[in-house]
Amino acid sequence: MSSEIFFTLSSGNQIPVIINNRRGARNVTLRPKVGKNPEIHISKPWTTSTSFVLKFLESKRKWVEKIFNAAPTTAKIMPDMYLEILGRNVHLVHDSNVRGNRYINEEKTILCIGGGAEMFERRVRDFIKDELLKEIKEIIKTTPPEYRPKHITLRDTTSRWGSCSTTGNISFSWRLAFAPYEVMRYVVMHELSHMKHMDHSKEFWANVSMLYGFGVERSKRWLSQHGQSLHRYF
Fold it and tell me: What's this model's pTM, rounded to 2 decimal places?
C-alpha cells in the first residue's frame, strides 16, 4: 500500500490517495470517499505501476472533483433531532439511564439511545447499520432461492451503492438507510440481479425490473439525482 496526495484545483484541498495492490485485479479501480475524512482509494494489479495509476487519476480529475464538490456538509447527529431512517422520519432521544438502543413505539418513529452522551453519535450509526442489514435480509427473502447471496456485508463507499462478486458475495453502502425505502430496495434488487448477469446488459435490466416491479426507473433516477445527499451524516 502506498499513499499520495491529490490537490483539488477547485477548492485547494489536499486529499489523501490510498493505493492498494489487489490480488486477482485486472483493472485499476478508483473510489473517492467523501465525509469527515475524505480519501481516494485506488486498487490496482500488482504489475501496474504507481506512476500509471496517478496518470489515470489525473485523467479522471473532472469526475473526482465533481464528487467532492457535490458532497454535502456533514451534519452532527444530536439528541432531539429527526433523521430519515429506512423511509421513516425518526425522532432521536437520549437517556443515559437506559441500556442498549431501541425503538420505543410501535411505529418505529422514536429511537431511544442509551449510554453516555459522548457515545451518542456512534451508537446511532451502529443501530442504523444493524437495522439496514436486517431489512436487506428480509427483502432478499422475498426473492427466489437462486438469488440468495452467500454473504452480505455493509461498507461505507462513495461511488458505488452496492457490489456483487462472482463468488456470490454482496456488499451495500450502509448509507442506503437514509434513502427512501423503495430506493434502497432498488439497489438490493440491482445487486441480486448480478447473481445471474455479471454485466449491465438488456437481460440484466429486465431481471432488475422483474424483481423490483413497477417504479424501478423512478428509484433509479432518484439515486442518480440525490445520491450524494446520503453522505450528509457521519
Answer: 0.75
